[in-house]
């Protein structure tokens, strides 16, 4: 029989909530609650399954780049087989997550939690109380409030497609849209992207996103810029999307990729004295809400840091340290690398290119076309470019942007140089395996 009072109750069993739960279970009684899939969005229907699909795209495009340079023949993506490969991982995530929690003596409850006071929640007609709470409920996809909105699907539906539609459209041009559209196009679907303005990936420099647009167009993706969808109709041949700029598009599948909203609506947070705004739950620099006994981690927080799985995990560990009395300092985020898994990849970390260009007195910007470098020529990279940003007073690397099929790897080499304030002379004292992307580091500094 489950107890009714715990040291800490965690609402949400995604990466942030789980990291806190496992930490706290060493010294506390912990209850964790989930109303969807154990493990959260990332391993079930987010970054992990997406990248499993992307692995086939990478391989296919790598072969195409090396065609005529020792490789012959064409590779095609078998969508049902690829989805089966994805499912071989995702199908076991909830069960494995529950087993891990049970093995750590962490109590679990499935259902939707609702605060009934500042120290109590109700769930499945039972009441639980705790000394402290951690909210880690994440976000959900946004569906636009337009006529026919119920015909629109989301990334969750895309990642469960048994067969690939011949023609599909993504509404929005952020991370989800660009990454999934790239996968679908490489797998053989006719793909359209509708965007209300003329930009994609607004967090990234336009000098790079414009190059990415050209590459995606060359891969067969059709962009409809400065266009807003106003209606979706079900017709015999699929779905008809209507909108301004003379939009009249018929597709087999229409996916809303207009961002995500915080999962707070069912928590009854006013009763708990927790402040919320349109971006999520408001917290201080200790991730404490307006109720000092309720903390928040992960994507449901109203914050400027990228909403990424590693950030949620970092925050989960931080809060557990606070609750265990192992730390009292305000949270301090290290440089956070961000990658868009398109073709090619686009990554950035640290001081943004836009910020550096606005403040030339303090920052030096260097952009290098690395396409002909051995590292990239070896794999016949069609185009590769890296921008590094330096603090003029210290001559230290403070930011970087990488545009290449190995951007994720490269940005992970540059990130610790920024975080640890590593000088060029210090890198010169290191010996890396050669020839590798890491052995090029000296040339970026």
List the helices and strands and how they pair.
Elements: E1 5-11, H1 15-24, E2 30-34, H2 41-45, H3 47-65, H4 79-90, H5 93-103, E3 107-110, E4 114-115, E5 120-123, E6 126-135, E7 139-141, H6 155-158, E8 167-171, H7 175-186, E9 190-194, H8 206-218, E10 222-224, E11 229-235, E12 238-243, E13 247-251, E14 253-256, E15 260-262, H9 269-272, E16 276-277, E17 280-281, E18 294-296, H10 309-323, E19 338-340, E20 345-350, H11 353-358, E21 363-369, H12 374-377, E22 385-391, E23 397-404, H13 407-419, H14 424-428, H15 441-444
Parallel strand pairs: 1-2, 1-6, 2-3, 6-18, 8-9, 8-14, 9-10
Antiparallel strand pairs: 4-5, 5-6, 7-15, 11-12, 12-13, 16-17, 19-20, 20-23, 21-22, 22-23
Explain what you see.
It is globular, with a radius of gyration of 23 Å. By secondary structure, the chain is of the alpha/beta class. 31% of the residues lie in helices and 25% in strands. β19 and β20 (345-350) form a beta hairpin. The longest helix has 19 residues, at 47-65. The strands form six sheets. Strands 1, 2, 3, 4, 5, 6 and 18 form a seven-stranded mixed sheet that branches. A five-stranded antiparallel sheet has the order 19-20-23-22-21, sandwiched between helices. The chain has helices spanning 15-24, 41-45, 47-65, 79-90, 93-103, 155-158, 175-186, 206-218, 269-272, 309-323, 353-358, 374-377, 407-419, 424-428, 441-444; strands at 5-11, 30-34, 107-110, 114-115, 120-123, 126-135, 139-141, 167-171, 190-194, 222-224, 229-235, 238-243, 247-251, 253-256, 260-262, 276-277, 280-281, 294-296, 338-340, 345-350, 363-369, 385-391, 397-404. The model has no long low-confidence stretch (mean pLDDT 97).
């Amino acid at each position: 029989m489950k107890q009714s009072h715990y040291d800490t109750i965690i609402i949400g069993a995604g990466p942030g909530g789980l990291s806190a739960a496992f930490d706290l279970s060493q010294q506390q009684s912990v209850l964790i609650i989930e109303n969807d899939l154990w493990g959260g969005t990332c391993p079930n229907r987010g970054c992990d399954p997406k990248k499993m699909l992307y692995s086939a795209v990478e391989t296919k495009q790598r072969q195409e780049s090396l065609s005529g340079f020792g490789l012959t023949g064409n590779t095609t993506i078998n969508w049902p087989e690829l989805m089966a490969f994805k499912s071989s991982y995702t199908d076991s995530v909830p069960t494995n997550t529950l087993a891990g929690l049970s093995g750590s003596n962490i109590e679990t409850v499935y259902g939707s939690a609702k605060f009934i006071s500042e120290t109590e929640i109700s769930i499945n007609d039972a009441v639980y109380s705790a000394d402290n709470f951690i909210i880690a409920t994440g976000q959900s996809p946004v569906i636009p409030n337009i006529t026919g909105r119920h015909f629109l699907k989301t990334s969750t539906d895309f990642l469960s497609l048994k067969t690939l539609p011949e023609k599909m459209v993504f509404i929005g041009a952020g991370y989800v849209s660009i990454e999934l559209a790239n996968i679908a196009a490489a797998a053989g679907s006719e793909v359209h992207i509708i965007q209300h303005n003329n930009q994609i990936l607004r967090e990234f420099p336009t000098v790079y996103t414009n190059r990415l647009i050209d590459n995606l167009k060359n891969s067969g993706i059709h962009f409809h810029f400065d266009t807003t969808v106003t209606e979706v109709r079900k017709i015999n041949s699929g779905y008809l999307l209507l909108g301004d700029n003379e939009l009249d598009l018929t597709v087999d599948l229409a996916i809303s990729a207009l961002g995500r909203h915080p999962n707070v609506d069912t928590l009854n947070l006013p009763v708990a004295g927790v402040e919320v705004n349109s971006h999520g739950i408001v917290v201080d620099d200790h991730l404490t809400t307006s109720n000092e006994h309720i903390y928040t981690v992960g994507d449901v927080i109203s914050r400027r840091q990228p909403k990424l799985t590693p950030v949620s995990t970092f925050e989960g560990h931080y809060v557990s340290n606070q609750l265990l009395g192992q730390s009292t300092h305000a949270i301090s985020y290290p440089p956070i690398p961000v990658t868009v898994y398109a073709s090619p990849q686009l990554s950035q970390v640290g001081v943004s290119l836009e910020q550096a260009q606005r403040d030339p007195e303090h920052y030096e910007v260097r952009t290098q076309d690395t396409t002909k470098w051995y590292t990239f020529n070896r794999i016949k990279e069609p185009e590769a470019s890296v921008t590094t940003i330096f603090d003029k007073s210290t001559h230290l690397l403070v930011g970087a942007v990488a545009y290449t099929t190995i951007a994720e790897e490269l940005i992970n080499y540059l990130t610790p140089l920024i975080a640890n304030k590593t000088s060029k002379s210090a890198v010169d004292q290191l010996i890396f395996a050669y020839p590798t992307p890491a052995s090029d580091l000296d040339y970026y500094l």
